[in-house]
Every structure is written in structure tokens, then in C-alpha cells.
């Protein structure tokens, strides 16, 4: 009788440890996905702010590189980039 009870306890321990491990892995995966989404949102906000400064005529040396990177990552559309540069150019030359 003691033999099957020890076996039952061992199986129960394995099931409990396996269940805890499963939930730890799922939680870690969800946390990674939410961190990734937060970084993408902050990148999108940065890209929008950078295009706004370009649109206002405030430029820097790496504007083309940053705008290209934002477009390649899918954070802004091509028309947003083109519009920002056209408006910025008009502001700088006084039109």
C-alpha cells in the first residue's frame, strides 16, 4: 500500500512542478510581447515627433537616415515622410 501512495505523491509533484513551469513560461512570453509593443509605441512617437520637427523646418544631419529607418520599420508611411520634407523645405526657403 505504501508503494502506490509514494508513486501517487511523486506523480502529483511532477504535475504541480510542470504546471508551475508552464505558467512561468507563459507569463514570461506575455511580458516580452508587452515590452516589445511598448518599445514599438515609443519608437512611433519618436518618429512622429521627428517628422513634426522636419515639417516645421527644424532639421539635423541625420534626418534622412532617421526618416528612412522609421519608414522601413513601418512606423510612418511614405507619404508622411515626403510631406514632412516638402513642408520643411518650403519653411526653410520662406514660401
Supply database-style keywords.
3 helices; mainly alpha; 84% helix; 95 residues
Number of E strands: 0
Mean pLDDT: 85
Q: Which percent range describes the beta-strand content?
A: under 5%
Structural class: mainly alpha
Biggest pleated-sheet summary: none
Number of helices: 3
Low-confidence stretches: none
How helix-rich are the residues, as a percent range? Answer: over 70%
What Rg do the Cα atoms give? Answer: 27 Å
- Helix-strand pattern: HHH
Q: What is the first-to-last residue Cα distance?
A: 94 Å
Shape: rod-shaped
Describe this structure in words.
The N and C termini lie far apart (94 Å). The protein has helices at 2-55, 63-72, 78-93. Helix 1 (2-55) crosses helix 2 (63-72) and helix 1 (2-55) packs parallel to helix 3. It has 3 helices and no strands. By secondary structure, the chain is mainly alpha-helical.
Amino acid at each position: 500500500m505504501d508503494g502506490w501512495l509514494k508513486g501517487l505523491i511523486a506523480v502529483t509533484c511532477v504535475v504541480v512542478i510542470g504546471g508551475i513551469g508552464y505558467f512561468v513560461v507563459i507569463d514570461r512570453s506575455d511580458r516580452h510581447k508587452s515590452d516589445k509593443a511598448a518599445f514599438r509605441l515609443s519608437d512611433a512617437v519618436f518618429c512622429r515627433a521627428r517628422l513634426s520637427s522636419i515639417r516645421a523646418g527644424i532639421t539635423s544631419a541625420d534626418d534622412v537616415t532617421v526618416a528612412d529607418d522609421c519608414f522601413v520599420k513601418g512606423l510612418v508611411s511614405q507619404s508622411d515622410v515626403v510631406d514632412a520634407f516638402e513642408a520643411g523645405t518650403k519653411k526653410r526657403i520662406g514660401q
